[in-house]
Design a protein that fits this description.
- The protein is mainly alpha-helical.
- It has helices at 4-33, 37-46, 48-57, 61-82, 87-107, 116-120, 129-148, 150-158, 160-165, 170-208, 215-240, 244-261.
- It has a single domain (4-194), classed as Orthogonal Bundle (ABC transporter involved in vitamin B12 uptake, BtuC), CATH 1.10.3470.
- 80% of the residues lie in helices and 0% in strands.
- α4 packs across α10 and α10 packs across α12.
- The longest helix is centred in the C-terminal third of the chain and has 39 residues, at 170-208.
């Protein structure tokens, strides 16, 4: 007979995957079509500095890390806008500094009771009810903001110069998107970790891009694929006793490779 405690953990993990899919489907689609994947990866890695800062100061990890991630995202965005020729170098520097700061701050907090690996690589089975509430808040905020500024995001994503000419606040939407990315990454880091989250953000939209004609369709398909990968990864990790976060990403990566080998298998938008 299944252990009730184990079933409870799996139910909580499944809820976490549903919420993660909503967040990653929306944000992932926007960063892929806007070609901001590398910048988003830099934000994810730099956010580890916030984990170290929270632990060192004895403060709640998620709020401090979210604030740190916002600062990192705005700094990267501002600097990359003003040094486009060296954008990748600027992102790489802040990326490395954030990771290094996180490690050093953890070294300065002897006897800390936090496993940094759970933030780097995720621990979906350890996600708490509070974590799910925070992810639900992030998913709701992303949905509301995406709906409110959908036309602007769509114009910025596909015809940036035309959008500027029509008076669309492209710069403001760019910074808003980066803030959404920062908060969303931190909210889902307990599921797949800061190292692996960029894969879950980008693999589903990449599989869909070119097979649909509308941004809204891309978002919906990405949410569905992300949920499919998450549930299948959880089942495989449970059966084979593997790390859940890494298994989810491995499953997504396998299907991504298959989509490249069999491009005609994916349903196309009419």
């Amino acid at each position: 007979m299944p252990d009730p405690a184990c079933l409870g953990l799996m139910a909580n993990a499944l809820l976490a995957m549903v919420l993660t899919s909503l967040v990653c489907g929306v944000i992932g689609s926007l960063i892929v079509v806007n070609r901001q994947v590398f910048l988003s990866g830099g934000i994810a890695h730099a956010s580890f500095g916030g984990v170290g800062l929270a632990v060192c100061l004895g403060l709640p990890v998620l709020p401090v890390t979210a604030l740190f991630a916002l600062c990192a995202a705005l700094s990267m965005s501002w600097l990359s806008q003003r040094a486009r020729m060296f954008e990748d170098a600027v992102i790489g520097v802040i990326w490395a500094l954030g990771m290094a700061l996180g490690v050093l701050l953890l070294n300065l907090a002897p006897g800390y009771g936090v496993d940094p690996m759970s933030y780097l690589f995720g621990s979906v089975l350890a996600v708490s009810g509070t974590d799910n509430l925070l992810m639900a808040g992030a998913a709701l905020a992303d949905a509301v903001l995406c709906a409110a500024f959908y036309k602007g995001f769509e114009a910025m994503s596909f015809e940036e110069d035309f959008a500027r000419a029509r008076g669309v606040p492209v710069v403001g939407l760019y910074y808003l998107l980066m803030c959404m990315v920062a908060v969303s990454i931190v909210m889902v880091m307990r599921v797949v970790g800061l190292i692996l989250v960029i894969a879950l953000l980008t693999i589903p939209p990449l599989m869909v891009m070119g097979r649909v004609k509308k941004l809204s369709s891309m978002i919906l398909w990405s949410i569905g694929l992300c949920l499919f990968f998450g549930v299948l990864g959880l089942v495989v990790s449970y059966v084979l006793d593997l790390t859940a976060g890494a298994t989810i990403i491995a499953v997504a990566g396998l299907f991504f490779v298959l989509s490249l080998v069999l491009p005609g298998r994916m349903r196309r938008e009419r």
